[in-house]
Amino acid sequence: MSLLRPLSKLPDLNAANVLLVENEEHFQQKLADVMVNEKSVIVQVRLAKSLPLPMKQEKSRPRIDLVVFIVNLMSELSLHSAEASLKHLAPGYFLGKVCFMVTNARNASVPAERMEAVRKLASALNCPLLFAEDQTPDGVTNAAERLLVILRVAAGCVPMTTALFLSNLTRCTISTEAEQQNSDYDA
Amino acid sequence: MDRHTSVARTPVSSVVVQRRSKSHRLSYRSNVGTMSHLGYTPGFSKRRLTTSRLAPKHSRITEVNPEQLALLVREWQLSYVTPLYRFRHGQLKSYSRQLAAFMVSEQQQGVAAEVGLESALKVSFTLVAGMAQTEEEANTVFIQIHSKPPFSAPDDPQKLLWSGWLTSVGGNPDYLRSLPEDFVCLPLFCSGGTEGLTALVKAWFQQTFDCCFGPLEINSVNLQWLAALWTDCHARSSIKQLKLVWSLPAEPPLEVTYTVHPQDAWELWRSIRQPGERGGEEEEDGSVGLEEVACFIKGLKSHFYRHFRVELSAGRLTQVSTALGSAKHGGRLKISNSSYMITTLTLLTECALLKMPI
Questions:
Q1: pLDDT on residue B358
Q2: For domain A15-186, which architecture applies?
Q3: Contacts of B46 in chain A (CB under 8 A)
């Protein structure tokens, strides 16, 4: 089966492996270059355009601790490709080992419906939704740092914390109309 | 609006109940939830609909009004305007005099004291009837600036330097009602002419009526709406062709012009509107949903992919044009047929209302 499974291999000592999935294959390279410089854990970054991953490298691939879907809001294709890739992940990943990262969210030509669709997707899957700025080196560094926080927890390198617990705190939430009105009155 | 304290008010939804009864750990989660909610609110006030419910759209046939023909002539640049303070429809003549005086004085600033021979301008403000949809909506105002050479006889043809119009077509009635007394809401401003004159007119409006102007772009979803609505009119008046222009992010940027034969576009649209049926009667109930529009565009894109292996979703829709009009992403609009003008302008008024910062 071509499903990617979270716990089918043995972990390495003090290592964290992350898979960056992006249709444009642009931001993932920059992020990878920054993330590999991390000192406290040995970070291995794998890059992919979409899932399923090719079978021939199945043996040499380590256990993937975190899968990050990078969605560029400027193109609809990015979102569709990410949605199509989701089907190839085993359900075990959705307990805190999947994260969505969105670029170009501030661009005025992005229709609001697309942002809404990404939010709904992230909150339906209980995953965190991060916003990143990919044009400046500072933006890339910030995004990499935030991903490393989640990655360290997902790889088990932080004591007393699991990926599921962290995702409970960081997951994307959408409030419905009724909750919005309630919180507006309470505030 | 009377405010209840959070203790006395019975929470309506079950999520709020959970917030109150669980431990402090989950209340941190509710803080995070609230913060993400605050981050999510994109500045829409409660008075306006969110775009997710933009479903029903009606295409109607209206009679041709001779004043509206002036709106068909050129390509307009769109902007949004915040509500105008103390704009009276009865004082249009005095506004035209004031605007002419303002423009003349602005043009003479910095020029040595010389009686500007070509600076005589004639401004006219007129009302265009038949565009306001409800009782509360303000009537459309059409502004024209002609140049008046000083040594000409009164019936010489005057050169039209600039024209523009302020309109509100089918604006949200709740919002219109919620405005304070002296404000008139005409959120869509269309200008045609040189940039310098447009800037002067905007400056005069800002000075006189305390309003703000801003650029209105038509984003890709609204362009898709226009494509679908115009195709929908094909049964009654032919659209001649449906032309879509996409820009794809390649090196150098690739521009794709996709021209669809009107009959094919109409067949596709009809098959989406009435799946499985061959429509005999004409539908009078013309409300169009957002899913139908998305389906229509998806059909066009997948056809393109099948033939050319180019995925149009990777790019942006920048222009839509048919025989009924053309709209570009940068906010340029041309209306070529007055029968379906109202629908187009309703969509654009709604865009302007949503883009306004208040």
A1: 67
A2: 3-Layer(aba) Sandwich (3.40)
A3: 181, 184
